[in-house]
Amino acid sequence: MGSLVHGRxxxxxxxxxxxxxKAANFLVVTIADSSEAVxxxxxxLADIDNLAKNVSIRDLNALFxxxxxxxxxxxxxxxxxxxxSELHPFRAIHGQKHTAVSTPGDLLFHIRAQRRDLCFExxxxxxxxxxxxxxxxxxxxxxxxxxxxxLLGFVDGTANPVGQDVSEATIVTAxxxxxxxxxxxxxxxxxxxxxxxxxxxxxxxxxHVIGRKKxxxxxxxxxxxxxxxxxxxxxxxxxxxxxxxxxxRDNMPFGSPSEGEYGTYFIGYSKELWVIEKMLQRMxxxxxxxxxxxxxxxxxxxxxxxxxxxxxDLLKKLR
Length: 319
Known about the structure:
- This protein has 11 helices and 14 strands.
- It has helices at residues 35-46, 48-56, 72-79, 116-130, 164-170, 174-177, 195-198, 203-210, 231-234, 273-284, 312-316; strands at 23-31, 65-71, 93-94, 99-100, 107-113, 134-143, 184-193, 237-238, 244-245, 248-249, 252-256, 261-270, 299-301, 305-309.
- Helix 2 (48-56) packs antiparallel against helix 4.
- The radius of gyration is 19 Å and the shape is globular.
């Protein structure tokens, strides 16, 4: 999950820090309850690097990458190595008004590239290899929208770490959890937006919900402590020592105008699962409790799953 070299060789397998792209698929599957299914999954995951090369070599400038995450319920039978210390199923959060739901998922394939056809071809080959060993529970096709905006009209991902801070925020070290060093926790949620309701708000009202100006993305001043906080503040985790705990987001819009579907697929990578869980608690419960993230009044989560993306070396050892 390290440095990237573009144009000459494919992106390294399991690269959490793969660049933002124009297209992505978020494929979540469950594994059939049989030893044959588990063996098939282990074989495919062990060879996922070669499968990715089959596709990425066709256009190295398309920045194709695939990151595999393994869910809590599947970890033991798929990997047969010690569990990541924080890994557990996604815990539903019940706020006074909104709920972060928990939904099934044994494997996540975060597939992205500058070209939609490469994502399509990789997913085709992947599902052909997995066969009836898995069942697809969600397959969301994301796209980059203008200057990395979400469908609500705001720039998304401004708070992401940059440079060396990316690996420091996302990659588990040997000192932190030796058995799964080089991996990262991954949380996904699929949100759908009430665009009709959102568009009834004035731009100024929308900006106070998000905490940034809509046009130029400049941060607004936070309200006093104890008052209603904007989304950008509730999604920022600062510990008692004043340290900011960052996560890496690779969110993407999805939708279908003909079906009236408009959404954002949230995907967050972190070396500490508690950081993302704390962020979601602040959003759904509120900080202080009772003052939930007002963005949720127009954004409803349909899914919620936690995974751990192991290192490429760990995947290869599944043979």
